[in-house]
Amino acid sequence: MGITELIGEIITLSIMAIALGMDAFSLGLGMGMIRLRLKQVFYIGITIGIFHVIMPLLGIGLGRMISVHFSGIASYIGGALLLILGLQMVVSSFKSGQQTLVTPIGFGLIIFALSVSLDSFSVGLSLGIFGARTAVAIFLFGFFSMVLTWVGLLLGRKVQTWLGSYGEALGGSILLAFGLKLLLPF
């Protein structure tokens, strides 16, 4: 693999990581409105970042096992998963009345981080099918989700609700585009 291919893969994975992190960002915006202390903001971001490393890692491992058995249709499976995930994110961003029922403290923080990172499991599954670089992918997923969670929480303290659902819709749109790219080679 040449340097330009490596750079291209890193850019692609970074865009996917940002798209996944937009979900954490938009949820962080909403959660930031409950006026958390900065120490809580720090721990929430770290926890969500850790879960965005663990979940795609599990997905990548399972995706690689699937690709061994279904190599002929692996790209279609991965593309379809990204399409479904992106569509789900876009649709859920326009549903009104979504409230976080779990407080981001203790066990509630674990439940919250797990729910925010479930989509990264699916993306990890797709990446495992395509054989993406595991270390680069999980680092980028964890880093961007952590940073975007912090930004969302801190911004949520300032601006209330003017961007929340649009951030998740943008992230879903990016995943939809990647799913289409995988299904329709052009």
UniProtKB/TrEMBL annotation:
Main location as per UniProt: membrane
Membrane topology: Multi-pass membrane protein
Transmembrane segments: 6-29, 41-61, 73-94, 106-130, 136-156, 163-184
PANTHER family: MANGANESE EFFLUX PUMP MNTP-RELATED
Role, per record: Probably functions as a manganese efflux pump.
Originating species: Schinkia azotoformans LMG 9581
One of the Pfam families matching this protein, by short name: Mntp
A GO cellular component annotation in the UniProt record: plasma membrane
Keyword Cell membrane: yes
Protein family per UniProt: Belongs to the MntP (TC 9.B.29) family.
Cellular compartments annotated: Cell membrane
Name used for this protein in its record: Putative manganese efflux pump MntP
GO terms of molecular function: manganese ion transmembrane transporter activity
InterPro entries the record matches: Mntp/YtaF, Put_MntP
Keyword annotations of the record: Cell membrane, Ion transport, Manganese, Membrane, Transmembrane, Transmembrane helix, Transport
